[in-house]
């Protein structure tokens, strides 16, 4: 069996990497995604084909995927495909399903209340097995086979009391949606000698991963995107993680044992295509896995409170069983 693992970059790829490791069975594994610092690092050493980026609701980009779907099917002998979306799935799954390939679409864990636009389209395509990561809206058409968050548990934090307070701020990899509102709110709080440093009595060192968000004039020394391994190391090294409420960023923080502070992107501010991050942040807060703060009201006290909380992952994550 040859399995094609297909996803766009960012949180979709992070989720697929987690799910792929939990799918039992031998066979060849081929990955298809877009090339950036995250994906080239995360998939190093694996069989991977990088394809042009598929933009949000860009039908012409989706159409351009179909010839490559045909080539990879013929060349690699693909017999099964697993995808976590987003739009790239529309360029491959309908074509491969029509060719008799066993197709599985796993909706993003960020979709707490129902499927995304991609999921709603694929719900109408014959031959595609569909999965939700939230049991509350599972049913005959959408099977629940587990969530990438299910194996994490809240626990007390163990903050370091010596040396500088190390903070990681990340706004994810979204190419179309800057999140300057979060950076503007945090910059004075996290600045050298700022409110957080005064409150904790320690110097504060901040690593800013700001993606496409412009930071000119905000007084922060930022990087765009870190390679996956460098970001994972930075998450483990951080005392405090502040992030947008994106599934991939959250998953990375949890895997590093960090209880992240989450800020929600808002569609009305041009920060996201819709408001699904509101639902995801609320779900993570309900599970005790994250603290949710409004950028407009963030304070040093609220950030320090998050230091007292941690996350752990006991045992081995359960298998993700695909429908036959």
TrEMBL record:
- Using the record's annotation, list all stretches that form the Glycosyl transferase family 28 C-terminal domain: 167-313
Cite the Pfam families for this sequence.
Glyco_tran_28_C (PF04101)
Name the SUPFAM superfamilies for this protein.
Answer: UDP-Glycosyltransferase/glycogen phosphorylase
The record ties this protein, via InterPro entries, to:
Glyco_trans_28_C
- Superkingdom is Bacteria
Q: What is this protein called?
A: Glycosyltransferase
| Organism this protein belongs to | Pseudonocardia spirodelae
């Amino acid at each position: 069996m040859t399995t094609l693992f297909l996803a766009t970059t960012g949180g979709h790829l992070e989720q697929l990497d987690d799910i792929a490791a939990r799918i039992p069975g031998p066979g060849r594994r081929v990955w298809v995604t877009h090339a950036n610092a995250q994906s080239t690092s995360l998939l190093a050493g694996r069989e991977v084909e990088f394809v042009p980026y598929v933009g949000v609701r860009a039908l012409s980009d989706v159409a351009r995927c179909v010839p490559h779907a045909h080539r990879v099917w013929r060349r690699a002998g693909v017999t099964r495909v697993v995808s976590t979306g987003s739009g790239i799935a529309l360029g491959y799954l309908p074509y491969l399903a029509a060719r008799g390939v066993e197709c599985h679409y796993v909706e993003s864990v960020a979709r707490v209340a129902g499927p995304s636009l991609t999921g709603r389209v694929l719900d109408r395509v014959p031959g595609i097995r569909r999965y939700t990561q939230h049991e509350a809206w599972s049913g005959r058409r959408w099977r629940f086979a587990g969530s990438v968050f299910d194996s994490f548990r809240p626990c007390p934090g163990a903050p370091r009391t010596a040396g500088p307070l190390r903070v990681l701020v990340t706004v994810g990899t979204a190419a179309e949606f800057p999140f300057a509102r979060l950076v503007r709110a945090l910059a004075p709080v996290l600045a050298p000698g700022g409110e957080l440093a005064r409150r904790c009595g320690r110097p504060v060192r901040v690593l800013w991963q700001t993606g496409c968000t412009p930071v000119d004039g905000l007084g922060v020394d930022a990087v765009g995107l870190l390679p996956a391994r460098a970001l994972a190391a930075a998450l483990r090294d951080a005392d405090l993680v502040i992030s947008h409420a994106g599934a991939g960023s959250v998953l990375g923080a949890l895997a590093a044992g960090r209880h992240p502070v989450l800020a929600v992107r808002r569609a009305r501010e041009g920060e996201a295509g819709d408001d699904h991050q509101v639902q995801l942040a609320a779900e993570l807060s309900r599970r005790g896995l994250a603290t949710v703060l409004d950028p407009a009201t963030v304070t040093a006290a609220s950030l320090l409170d998050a230091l007292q909380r941690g996350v752990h992952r006991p045992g081995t994550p359960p298998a993700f069983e695909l429908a036959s």
